[in-house]
């Protein structure tokens, strides 16, 4: 027989508050009472109302991530794996992942505002971080919990996780030099984002360590929304140089265009 909270409380001769606190694991309810309540709840198929529990705790038990449709996140299999990993990790601690998709990057701040001011989430995760990022400044100003997948130039303390782009591209460049390449190109991302900044730094450091000069003609910027600046077109431009490169360093999302060229 299924019962509601008041019925379960009446059966156990306890107050509804005690039942709720026992099922929520509060320490002010004895372990003996907690076990008694848990056993009865299981027997009578009683499940606490999750909305009421969250209101009681003052938590949504949800983490938000704000994206923009213009960025084509879902074309990158790495990003899909990242989302899956975040979701699995959150579920292990009883949290859900809420994804808000804005029409473009400029409206991501509106998505953040709705989530934060509407108290829809307990924290945020931000990706594709920029050197100067309005989203990060907003969350810092609001003193709202967040974690970055990436970095920014804002000097205020904040949590982040990032790939060492400088090291990765420096070592990749050095490896190509060791293979005998002397004309190494870079198809990099948009310069307002932080990761391409580190990639360019690593590329230049790799050339320097191998005794090769930096040639700006071998560096191209890829922009996914500009057909003229696609990785395909940039690769064709590199191959048309009087002295074309013998190797190209690139981001994973540009691979299809480069291989097609």
UniProtKB/TrEMBL annotation:
PROSITE patterns assigned to the protein according to its UniProt record, in alphabetical order: HTH_LACI_2
InterPro entries with a match to the protein in the record: HTH_LacI (IPR000843), Lambda_DNA-bd_dom_sf (IPR010982), Peripla_BP/Lac1_sug-bd_dom (IPR001761), Peripla_BP_I (IPR028082)
A Pfam family reported for this protein in Swiss-Prot or TrEMBL: LacI
Keywords: DNA-binding, Transcription, Transcription regulation
CDD domains, alphabetized: HTH_LacI
Family matches, as SUPFAM superfamilies: lambda repressor-like DNA-binding domains, Periplasmic binding protein-like I
Molecular function as annotated in GO: DNA-binding transcription factor activity; transcription cis-regulatory region binding
HTH lacI-type domain ranges (all copies): 3-57
Protein name per the record: HTH lacI-type domain-containing protein
Source organism of this protein record: marine metagenome
Classification lineage: unclassified sequences, metagenomes, ecological metagenomes
